[in-house]
Amino acid sequence: MAIAAERPWHLVPVGIIALLWHAGGALDYLLTKIGYAPYLEQVPAEWLVYFDAMPAWVTGAWAVGVWGGLLGAVLLLMREHWAPLALAASFFAVGAATIWLTLLSDPPMQQAVGMEFTWVMILATGAAFLLWIYGRAMRRRGVIT
Fold first, then answer.
1. CA separation (Å) from 68 to 12, 62, 71?
2. Crossing angle between the packed helical segments 11-33 and 115-140, to the nearest 10 degrees
3. What does the pLDDT look like over 66-98, one tens digit per residue?
4. Are 1 and 143 in contact (CB under 8 A)?
């Protein structure tokens, strides 16, 4: 068993921010999938129609993105060696969904629901990438064993 390096000061704040970010995404996913009316009533009807028409693989990527990210954040805080893998799965899933929604879907997301949500997806992809890179760096430095 490898001995872990000393925990850097930034691990806990980054882990907590990651946990809160992905918990918000997981809550959004859960409330949407169970059809929680008070939550869905806040979303424009045309958005719901657009997202209901997504291919199953995009919905699956959304699930892997939010739940993989949440698991990765928890594992990061626990300094578990699987954290970078879970964060990588989250990044690649969110990235694939974002590429399809913004470039390949007909109509593209920015046309169907506007640029506001498109920027959210781009931000989510960027955040997932940075968290994955951070997790890898902590693993390489021996902080995560």
1. 19, 10, 5
2. 140
3. 999 999 999 999 999 999 999 999 999 999 999
4. no
Distance in angstroms (rounded) separating the CA atoms of residues 138 and 10:
11
For residue 66, which amino acid is it? Answer: V
Residue 35: φ, ψ to 5°: 70, 40
CB 54 within 8 A of CB 72: no
> Is the CB of residue 78 less than 8 Å from the CB of residue 12?
no
The H-assigned helical ranges of the chain are: 11-33, 37-40, 45-52, 56-78, 83-99, 109-112, 115-140
Number of H helices, E strands in the chain: 7, 0
CA distance 27 to 23: 6
Separation between Cα atoms, residue 118 and residue 128, nearest integer Å = 15
Report the pLDDT value the prediction gives residue 87, as an integer from 0 to 100.
Answer: 98
